[in-house]
Amino acid sequence: MNENLIRIQQGTHHDPFDWLGWHPLPDGNWVLRTFMPAAEAVEVVGHGLMTRLEGTDCFEAKLSSPTDAAPSHPALRWQDKQAGNWHDAVCPYTFPPQVGDLDLHLLGQGRHHHAWKVLGSHAISVDGVAGTLFAVWAPAVKRVSVIGDFNAWDGRRHPMRVRGETGVWEIFIPGIAVGTSYKYEILNRHDAIVVKTDPYAQQMFMRPETTSRVPNDVPHPWQDSAWIATREQFDWQHQPMSVYELHPGSWRKHPDGRFYSWAELTETLIPYVTDLNYTHIELMPVAEHPLDESWGYQVSGYYAPTARYGTPDDFRAFVDACHVAGLGVLLDWVPAHFPKDDFALAKFTGEPLYEHADPRRGEHQDWGTLIFDFGRNEVKNFLISNALYWIDEFHIDGLRVDAVASMLYLDYSRKAGEWLPNQYGGRENIEAIAFLREMNTVVHGYFPGVLTIAEESTSWPAVSRPVEIGGLGFSMKWNMGWMNDNLKYIEQNPVHRKYHHNLLTFSQIYAYSENFVLPLSHDEVVHLKHSMLDKMPGDYWQAFANLRLFYAWHYAHPGKKLLFMGSEFGQWAEWNVKKELDWALCQFPAHDSIRHVLRDLNRLYRDLPALHHYDFDGRGFQWIDCHDSDQSVLSLIRHGENPDDQLIILLNFTPVPRYAYRIGVPTAASYREVLNTDSEYYGGSNCGNAGMIPVQPHAWMGFEHSVEVTLPPLAALFLQAC
């Protein structure tokens, strides 16, 4: 028996196109061969039955020419062995390679920035025949096949061709339509068979299913062209940016526990967030993941929006609606690690491929997850293309990159002897640093105005500085220091706060070393850390007053703003991914008043340049008095670009009203309150300053003029010159 035929029959042929399909014969005729293990008989439509090669499931027909005697891609009919039914098919082995040589070269170089358009599955037509092109990177293996319901999950039926030494396997299968389920069956070099979902699958089925799905490649009819054009000119350093962070699956749920769909979130979430005057939402990861409790941070389908909330087109429509409503969309992106689930990326060929082979560099022991091999071109290509994919295909306005610190340090959360140093003996992950710099350079090069934001918790320098001057190239960085210090302060009993006053003021030492976001994120309201409201000391009234005051300080301090869902109405319980937010609390005035104060803080922040123009620049901030620790009072000025754009802010962190409290002021004009968190409208005691606050020609604190004000208890005042 022919060796090619034996290898095809056994499912070990690395390139079945060498034997199957059309092949010339020495006598000038041609032979058409097909391999159908499930078939009792096969015929070429219009030319009669094919001959079964003895002892095999291979059939052949000798014809005079693949173009004269039969079409280049002849229609076949085959009868299944079990039921005897007849089925139509077109032999996939009559089609030439579809992945171009330039694509293969760029993939191998790690410079194919649109790899998702080449790899994965794509419903296309070739020579007028409709079907799906499958392509996957799986180097150093003996065979890769596409399996699914269409071939009874039999890996012998549709083995792919390998494209030289690239490790890329491909096949065009006629008749495979949008929505078809599939996986890859891989016969590795050790003769072990592994079955995997497609790393580049753009759609998957609802968990607990783990199968990939042929996506719909029909372009979405986007309505946000005006938004995209404006985004390209987005002067984000000098514009307001307040972010509502949310987990789509637990913002709201149906009574029976079902998730809200993207369409339902469009109807409910968008008007809710825009009413609160936020500029952006940030979605916790929406890439496909098997475990709800991972919150999306253990990704198994990097290119597939999770099926929990609908189709990829449903997600596009949601983002489109956000943009039309004037709301930006940021997305959590997780290139730092991936789970060990055996159906996905882990040991993709039965051996480490996407992860580093040495567990001292390839595994996060704390998280039980694997670390990408950032030094491998094809892996780097996978991730950089993925960053571009979400922006290009879904019009995402920015990526918040998770766990950057774990990528930067080889000894991250490791003891001595549990990590390998770099080639210079250091702890820096040189490959990951190069990857982050390249990712940021590529994203900003393709998409001006799109943001990249690092969750980076160490003192690594120049995270949000350009690559050209030695930075990592991120637009912004989460200010974890501000968050930790200020939460520690506000949790103190007010009588003790005077001993911790430096926690409020220390951030000004480094506030402009990076472009900072001030995060009050999901991580701060889980794992027994208490909800934002439950962190607050004192009785019921004081807890709400403290929270209103703390949010005012959040907006008074330079930096972009971020708040996690539920915190905007003072949820008492910690966030629980299995439940929706405690929306019933909004029926109580004390809770609803928190939304009122945030709505007005966002409005001031958006409308007044003094509160946002110099978020990253020391010119926008000036202490009036930061030393009044005995009374736990701060007073400061926020400046805009225009000298007239000034706002005076006073914060009283004790429950004691301060009467005739004098501060120096920069102008001789009168002042008025534009926001008082103790207003009865916000549930306060309505202590404050009615009408105009006259300026006195009394030098104070280095200013030629001063004012006397009443400071409400546990409250903030925002004063503007009249």
Automatic annotation (TrEMBL):
<comment type="pathway">
    <text>Glycan biosynthesis; glycogen biosynthesis.</text>
</comment>
<dbReference type="GO" id="GO:0004553">
    <property type="term" value="F:hydrolase activity, hydrolyzing O-glycosyl compounds"/>
</dbReference>
<dbReference type="Pfam" id="PF02922">
    <property type="entry name" value="CBM_48"/>
</dbReference>
<keyword id="KW-0808">Transferase</keyword>
<dbReference type="GO" id="GO:0005978">
    <property type="term" value="P:glycogen biosynthetic process"/>
</dbReference>
<protein>
    <recommendedName>
        <fullName>1,4-alpha-glucan branching enzyme GlgB</fullName>
        <ecNumber>2.4.1.18</ecNumber>
    </recommendedName>
</protein>
<comment type="similarity">
    <text>Belongs to the glycosyl hydrolase 13 family. GlgB subfamily.</text>
</comment>
<feature type="active site" description="Proton donor">
    <location>
        <position position="455"/>
    </location>
</feature>
<dbReference type="Pfam" id="PF00128">
    <property type="entry name" value="Alpha-amylase"/>
</dbReference>
<dbReference type="InterPro" id="IPR037439">
    <property type="entry name" value="Branching_enzy"/>
</dbReference>
<dbReference type="InterPro" id="IPR006407">
    <property type="entry name" value="GlgB"/>
</dbReference>
<feature type="domain" description="Glycosyl hydrolase family 13 catalytic">
    <location>
        <begin position="245"/>
        <end position="696"/>
    </location>
</feature>
<dbReference type="Pfam" id="PF02806">
    <property type="entry name" value="Alpha-amylase_C"/>
</dbReference>
<dbReference type="InterPro" id="IPR014756">
    <property type="entry name" value="Ig_E-set"/>
</dbReference>
<dbReference type="InterPro" id="IPR004193">
    <property type="entry name" value="Glyco_hydro_13_N"/>
</dbReference>
<dbReference type="GO" id="GO:0003844">
    <property type="term" value="F:1,4-alpha-glucan branching enzyme activity"/>
</dbReference>
<comment type="subunit">
    <text>Monomer.</text>
</comment>
<keyword id="KW-0320">Glycogen biosynthesis</keyword>
<dbReference type="InterPro" id="IPR006047">
    <property type="entry name" value="GH13_cat_dom"/>
</dbReference>
<dbReference type="InterPro" id="IPR044143">
    <property type="entry name" value="GlgB_N_E_set_prok"/>
</dbReference>
<keyword id="KW-0328">Glycosyltransferase</keyword>
<keyword id="KW-0119">Carbohydrate metabolism</keyword>
<dbReference type="Pfam" id="PF22019">
    <property type="entry name" value="GlgB_N"/>
</dbReference>
<dbReference type="InterPro" id="IPR054169">
    <property type="entry name" value="GlgB_N"/>
</dbReference>
<dbReference type="InterPro" id="IPR013783">
    <property type="entry name" value="Ig-like_fold"/>
</dbReference>
<dbReference type="InterPro" id="IPR017853">
    <property type="entry name" value="GH"/>
</dbReference>
<feature type="active site" description="Nucleophile">
    <location>
        <position position="402"/>
    </location>
</feature>
<keyword id="KW-0321">Glycogen metabolism</keyword>
<comment type="function">
    <text>Catalyzes the formation of the alpha-1,6-glucosidic linkages in glycogen by scission of a 1,4-alpha-linked oligosaccharide from growing alpha-1,4-glucan chains and the subsequent attachment of the oligosaccharide to the alpha-1,6 position.</text>
</comment>
<dbReference type="InterPro" id="IPR013780">
    <property type="entry name" value="Glyco_hydro_b"/>
</dbReference>
<dbReference type="GO" id="GO:0043169">
    <property type="term" value="F:cation binding"/>
</dbReference>
<dbReference type="InterPro" id="IPR006048">
    <property type="entry name" value="A-amylase/branching_C"/>
</dbReference>
<dbReference type="GO" id="GO:0005829">
    <property type="term" value="C:cytosol"/>
</dbReference>
